[in-house]
Design a protein that fits this description.
14 helices; Rossmann fold; alpha/beta; 5-stranded parallel β-sheet; disordered N terminus; elongated; 7-stranded parallel β-sheet
């Protein structure tokens, strides 16, 4: 039998007791579950298994599950959970009586009910940066795809010499900016959380001070903001209408940040605007039918769909769990 922890972070249970060897306690029979409707690549699973088992823990797999009941049953006795786009709801949290940490293998974590986890003392982490290059390459590919008329016959244009706006200058945004610079684009960026202009200048990127200024300057706008209460439906009619003639909005972030009513209105009033997204809009079918090749949505989210990103994110998730149990490291915690 493993050790029972009344605390979700086992370290907290013994933080004031100097006689207890924390490392010995946490390394007994800890169980890590990888729950993925869309499984990791075999190489990633093998790497996760190696990291987990070398730490002395047990690995369990739940792959391609078709019913939430399977997930609820699988989490009942686990101490740690690794997911991809799988939903960790309040119901899942309640079913996972021993759960101490959830790691979302990827940057976004809006598929996890952080409030429910916090209420139970469960740490939630993401793996920032592991998928960044894959998403950045896709963003650039999308720009070229739209510039070349979705690779159908007809005269297209080049992205060299065009202006590129980066909305949110995090891991992905920086890589998109660097790629744009390498392809001869003039790059602007806006990020309200980065006040030091030297961060942008170091990459040869021009810092702007507002969303409005960014959109006015950008013939291509690459969107990288998270879906929060402040950002949901924040990208709409006014910003789109302010963009230069022939502008293209590229969304590899979240569909929720787009005001779809405002988007449709802008596309209706300006026949030169284009929109391409890796997260299909709720109204994607209607948009595509009405605006043809000026709108495109991938059939399924592809941002992190590379072998490299798949492996990197999975291994990072496993390593973060082991580090958390061994040292209490919560560097990538996203809930409080």
């Amino acid at each position: 039998m493993g050790v029972f922890f009344p605390y979700r972070n086992p370290r907290d249970a013994y933080k004031d007791d100097k006689s207890v060897n924390f490392l010995e306690l946490v390394e007994k029979d800890m169980k890590v579950l990888v729950a993925t409707e869309k499984p990791f690549a075999k190489e990633a699973v093998d790497g996760i298994r190696k990291i987990v088992e070398e730490a002395g823990y047990t690995l369990a797999l739940l792959e391609k599950y078709a019913d939430k009941a399977e997930l609820l049953a699988a989490v009942a006795d686990v101490d740690a959970l690794i997911i991809r786009s799988d939903k960790v709801t309040a119901e899942v949290v309640e079913a996972a009586k021993n759960l101490k940490i959830v790691v979302r293998a990827g940057a976004g974590y809006d598929n996890v009910d952080c409030a429910a986890c916090s209420a139970k003392g469960i740490v939630v982490m993401n793996t920032p940066g592991q998928n960044s290059n894959a998403v950045a390459e896709l963003a650039i590919a999308m720009m070229i795809f739209m510039a070349r008329n979705q690779f159908t016959p007809g005269t297209g244009s080049e992205i060299k010499g065009k202006t590129l706006g980066i909305h949110a200058y995090g891991n992905v945004g920086r890589l998109v900016g660097k790629a744009g610079k390498a392809m001869g684009m003039e790059v602007y960026a806006f990020d309200p959380f980065i006040s030091d202009a030297k961060v942008f200048e170091a990459d040869g990127v021009i810092k702007v001070d507002s969303e409005e200024e960014l959109y006015k300057k950008s013939q291509y706008l690459s969107l990288h903001i998270p879906a929060t209460e402040q950002t949901k439906k924040s990208i709409g009619y006014d910003l789109l209408m302010s963009m230069p003639k022939g502008a293209t909005l590229v969304n590899t972030a979240r569909k929720e940040v787009i005001d779809e009513v405002g988007l449709a209105k802008a596309l209706e009033e300006r026949s030169d605007l284009k929109y391409i997204t890796d997260i299909a809009a709720d109204s994607q079918a209607e948009l595509s039918e009405k605006f043809g090749k000026r709108v495109f949505g991938t059939a399924k989210k592809m941002g992190a769909e590379t072998a490299e990103a798949n492996i990197n994110a999975g291994l990072a998730a496993a390593s973060q769990i082991v580090d958390f149990f061994k040292t209490g490291n919560k560097k990538f915690q996203v809930n409080k």
